[in-house]
């Protein structure tokens, strides 16, 4: 994957938030997703894996300037963090047993559900989560305009909101509510929602 390593090093030459950097980031992500080298974690539940993968993509774009090619290849660097995220997720699950989340109302085209019904003893959300929720509401109209063709209900705002931790709504549940196949939802999320999360990270200054 020497070509991928070189592309990463080239991308780092462009300033954060620049169009050229974003173009190359999109190319890097596309090459990695088309490869067969992203760790699949066969013994991990699907939802836990997808959540860890989402976090790893966000981390990858935030920390690209920290990549050291003398220590590991890009895929190894990415997969090591993915494994770390999985381990963190397992630890979080133990802490979340006392919490519960459910859909109070079916999804509709106007708004995401009120997803959280959590005891008052829950930890305060992190600064990053607070900033992300604020960013989502601020950019709500724009994010809703980014949707699956001919399916305005399946848009970036709804999917990002519904897939947030600490307990993302399962793809199967969303599939029933939105009347869209799971591969359609997850594929759109990887193509469009991840890009928007990367934009949030850049705009919010979440860079090491």
List keywords for this structure.
208 residues; single chain; 3% strand; mainly alpha; two-stranded antiparallel sheet; 58% helix
Topology of helices and strands:
Layout lengths: L1 H10 L7 H16 L11 H17 L11 H22 L31 H12 L1 H6 L1 E2 L2 E5 H7 L8 H8 L3 H22 L5
Antiparallel strand pairs: 1-2
Characterize the structure shown.
- The structure is a single chain.
- This protein is mainly alpha-helical.
- It has nine helices and two strands.
- It has helices spanning 2-11, 19-34, 46-62, 74-95, 127-138, 140-145, 156-162, 171-178, 182-203; strands spanning 147-148, 151-155.
- Strands 1-2 form a two-stranded antiparallel sheet.
- Strand 1 and strand 2 (151-155) form a beta hairpin.
- The longest helix is centred in the middle third of the chain and has 22 residues, at 74-95.
- It is globular.
Question: Nutshell version of this structure?
Answer:
Helices cover 58% and strands 3% of the residues. It has 208 residues and is mostly helical.
Task: Report the structural category.
Answer: mainly alpha
Strand content: under 5%
The biggest beta sheet is recorded as: 2 strands, antiparallel
User: Could you tell me how far the N terminus lies from the C terminus, measured between alpha carbons in angstroms?
Assistant: 25 Å
**Molecular shape:** globular
Task: Specify the number of helices.
Answer: 9
**For the CA atoms, what is the radius of gyration?**
17 Å
Question: How are the strands of the largest sheet arranged?
Answer: 1-2
Helical fraction: 55-70%
Note poorly predicted spans.
97-126
């Amino acid at each position: 994957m020497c070509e991928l390593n070189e592309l990463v090093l080239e991308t780092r030459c462009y300033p954060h938030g620049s169009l050229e950097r974003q173009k190359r980031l999109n190319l890097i992500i596309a090459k990695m997703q088309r490869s067969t080298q992203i760790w699949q974690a066969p013994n991990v539940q699907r939802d836990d894996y997808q959540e860890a993968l989402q976090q790893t993509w966000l981390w990858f774009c935030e920390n690209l300037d920290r990549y050291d090619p003398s220590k590991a290849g890009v895929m190894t660097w990415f997969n090591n963090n993915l494994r770390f995220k999985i381990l963190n997720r397992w630890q979080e699950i133990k802490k979340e047993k006392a919490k519960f989340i459910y859909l109070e109302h079916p999804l509709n085209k106007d708004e995401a559900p009120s997803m959280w019904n959590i005891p008052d003893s829950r930890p305060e959300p992190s600064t990053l989560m607070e900033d992300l929720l604020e960013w989502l509401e601020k950019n709500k109209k724009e994010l809703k305009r980014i949707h699956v063709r001919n399916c305005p209900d399946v848009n970036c705002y709804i999917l990002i909101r519904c897939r947030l931790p600490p307990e993302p709504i399962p793809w199967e549940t969303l599939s029933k509510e939105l009347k869209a196949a799971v591969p359609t939802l997850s594929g759109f999320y990887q193509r469009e929602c991840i890009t928007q999360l990367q934009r949030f990270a850049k705009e919010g200054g979440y860079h090491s």
